[in-house]
Design goal:
Pathway: Cofactor biosynthesis; nicotinate biosynthesis; nicotinate from nicotinamide: step 1/1. By secondary structure, the protein is an alpha/beta fold. The chain is built from 6 helices and 8 strands, in the order E-H-E-H-E-E-E-H-E-H-E-H-E-H. Strand 6, helix 4 and strand 7 form a beta-alpha-beta unit. Bound molecules: pyrazine-2-carboxylic acid and zinc ion.
């Protein structure tokens, strides 16, 4: 049978309280992640993570473009939201949240290194020009099912889930383990609808633990 892995998306300081691109209540995902990590460890299931990992002059940064943060423009032919500088490689903001039980994480996949394109999905950049090591790694370990949660619902979680489904993974999303940027009210709800419509199964942590006890 195909193995299962828990994929923790971008639970990094910059998306949490006091960070450069704070997601409201982002820290609340850590406790959910730790409970799922405990559940995985008890079953010998794999835990992995993704990490937004930008060079300091990344093209998605408003400062680099001389634009206002949270407005949009074009980056190398693609529509792009301009973000505050965030998750710069080797800075504290890019580190995974300190309360996350990181000793359980067997591999961490970095993305967003290419200055010319943003990378919301943990599998591909936004135009699928390049691929991370994630899919090859999962294939190597015969992982066919993913439990996905993290930050942010309406960006990196959403695109990671949609790519995982396209690649043929069975995907469960733990909704209370996610929080969104919510540039527009309802973005997170719409993101969950898009994920469900594409074939993901949505669970609360409580439901997940009850169904898989
Ligand atoms: C993310 C915006 C910019 C995310 C990353 O992890 O959802 N959002 N970079
Ligand atoms: Zn980013």
């Amino acid at each position: 049978m195909a193995h299962r892995a828990l994929l923790l998306v971008d639970i990094q300081n910059d998306f949490c309280a006091g960070g450069a691109l704070t997601v409201a209540d982002g820290d609340a995902t850590v406790e959910v992640a730790n409970q799922l990590i405990k559940w995985c460890r008890a079953r010998g299931e794999i835990v992995i993570a993704s990490q937004d990992w930008h060079p300091q002059d990344h093209g998605s940064f408003a400062r680099v473009q001389g634009a206002e943060p949270f407005t949009t423009g074009m980056l190398d032919g693609l529509e792009q939201t301009w973000w505050p500088d965030h998750c710069v490689q080797n800075t504290q903001g890019a580190e995974l949240h300190p309360l996350l039980k990181q000793e359980a994480i067997s591999a961490c996949f970095q993305k967003g290194e290419n200055t010319l394109i943003d990378s919301y999905s943990a599998f591909f950049d936004n135009e699928h020009r390049q691929e991370t090591q994630l899919h090859a790694w999962l294939q190597h370990y015969h992982v066919g099912q993913l439990i996905i949660m993290g930050l942010a619902t309406d960006y990196c979680v959403k695109y990671t889930v949609l790519d995982a489904l396209k690649l043929g993974y069975q995907v469960a999303v733990i909704v209370d383990g996610c929080r969104g940027v919510e540039m527009q009210d309802g973005d997170s709800i719409r993101a969950f609808q898009d994920m469900a419509f594409a074939g993901a199964t949505l669970y609360t942590l409580e439901d997940w633990l009850e169904v898989h006890n």
